[in-house]
Amino acid sequence: MNSKLILVNIVRWFVLLLIQILLLRNLSFYNMATPFVYIIFLLLIPFGTPNLLLYLIAFATGLTLDAFYDTLGVHTAACVALAFVRILFISVTMNRDGFDEPEPTLGNMGFKWFIIYALLCTLSHHLVLFFLETFRLVEFSYTLMRCFFSVAFTLFSVVLIEFIFYNRKMR
Amino acid sequence: MRNLWIFLNRYNAFFFFIIFFTVGVILTIKNNAYQRSITVNSTNEVVGEVYQNLNVLKKYLNLGPVNDSLSAENAKLKTELLSLQNIDSAKAVTVTDTANKPVYTYLSARVIKNSITLRNNVITINKGRADGIAPDMAVISPGQGVVGFVLDVSEHLATIRSLLHKDAKISVTLKKSNALGILVWGVGNSDFSKAFVKEIPNHFKVSLKDTIVTSGFSRFPAGIPVGIVTNTAVPTGDNFMSVEVKLFNDFSTLQYVYVVSYKYAAEQKELEAKLPNE
Asked: CB contact, 8 Å: B15 with chain A?
């Protein structure tokens, strides 16, 4: 990992968290779909990052979000779940020894790979997030519905952002 | 030992996941508990500072509506003052406690962080322990309506468990029949202008457009208007009635709140703690 990549990731972390906290926190469709676009940062962490480091980053990111959302632990657990799914997905779909590309972006990996990757990661994150937030099974179907609508919203935003910023590298 | 190490190392992703995920869940459970000892939330200094600064901008954007609501309230207060001045002093009876002090005091505070999009919404205000705010105090909005209860205080900030929270319950009565009920945001309700009154005894007749007011049993002064009944046919699974209520206050534009300090809160709590647990 070179220093430019690290710098890009740090800048991305600050920008995405600022957007999430100051702007998207106030946004929702009929209180059913709430976007959590900051997870794009965790999706785009470069390949080859050690697992422990990845978990630590996810943990810290979740904790920061929790502080601003007043939901201690909820985002933290969700981000850690996302990191787990990310590691599994990458180890299953990619060649372990050599990564051709530095980052798992849409432009680098192609649309099909990226959309499945983003969908699985977002789904795991949102499931943990919404069920820990509700913290009771009485509202199961309602929570599930909110979760799926939010996944659709977040996924749409993530793919949109990817198309806007990474399209030029498309092969 | 070496084999164990190889095994752990091989599936390190899974073991790290277990460790970090458990920490996350433990944090959540601790946060859900009544005592909130860990302050990684918006009463925290850094987080509070960010929201304070952001609020400077928001305050200007909302000056118009806030001015309107303040002037409306002013007008209402002036009318009340006028009617009080015109009371025949020979007949006037003031009901205060024995020390001749008001039982409830209002403290005005500005909302520096609010949310309406989550399942459990928490509001942060810019007054704290230094201004005399303590946990469990009632919070009402300047116009009409209730906001919630103080959850946590730091030196200069406090968080409020908004009515839009799964654990928020406020004792209310129906104005016409005086039937008691419990105001909750409700399961499966995503509308921040709507709430439910649960556990009204079945023999009461509830009419549409009836006003819901606070009962005075849960730290709120009695008679604060909360909302009007919009639907009386809410299905329930028990022997009680539920009605749907349209709330008077708009949580999405909340700028100022009043924290209600009840003089005998500590005394009442102490007294009620002596009761055997149900």
From this structure: no
